[in-house]
Amino acid sequence: MALVPFSRPGSPSDPDDDLDPEAPATGEDGGGAMSFLDHLDELRRRIIWAVASLAAGFLICCFFIQQIFDFIMRPLQQMLPKGGTLVYTDPSEAFILYIKLAAIGGLILASPAIFTQLWLFIAPGLYSHEKKWAIPFVMMSSFFFVAGAAFSHYIVFPMTWRFFVGFTTDYLTFMPRIEPAFSMYMGMLLSFGAVFQMPTLVLFLARMGVLTARFMLKNTKYAFLIIVIISAVVTPDGGGVSLIAMSGPLFVLYLFSIGLAWMFGKPKRIAD
After folding, report:
1. Planar angle of CA 209, 267, 251, nearest 5 degrees
2. Which among 270, 227, 267 has a CA at the least distance from the CA of 251?
3. Closest C-alpha to 113, from 140, 150, 138
């Protein structure tokens, strides 16, 4: 049985719809529907290209690993009490940290290529006029991912780090290990990069007619509750400064997304 990728309710099913210039393409050549195995093969190819892009970014970052290390770890050390320093207790811990630093740098560097592969996988199931949004999708996805990562690095993580450092007393000395410290940093950075994709997701759901500004505005209170829950789950202190620092910008992004859905949403067709 032939399948059309990512078909949506209300998609044309009549044979005459092949003449519709806005009908979704079915296959790379537009010459037929993609089978289930074709979907798997397409997914495999896109994953290979995405991994290759990530590997290229990783190798590039390896040449600048000391600069990346100083950029991320030096601010953490400077916020420690006077004389404090980051430590490692396992012989391989510092080496693995360098590998992770190159990997996270490579991910940010390769994000446009990765989002391009995501678009190329989704594109066969879209209408021809929707495929024109390829460049905006890649640019918005990359921009908001980097913006979320930057917001975490410059604002949220330093606030959270100072919160934990603040428990130092005459009887308690904060001497964090580099592995859990960087794991917390990386977790927050990836979380912010992911949740900052909200405007991109809303924009394209609105363009497909799946989501409307009116629906989002009507359910704002539920959205706020979900945002707080998500923030509590992905932030390390659960109910402290990082929760507030994440939920506040996310709610602003939600309001911004409502504006995008209102401006670029799929217009309603007037009944004949």
Report:
1. 60
2. 227
3. 138
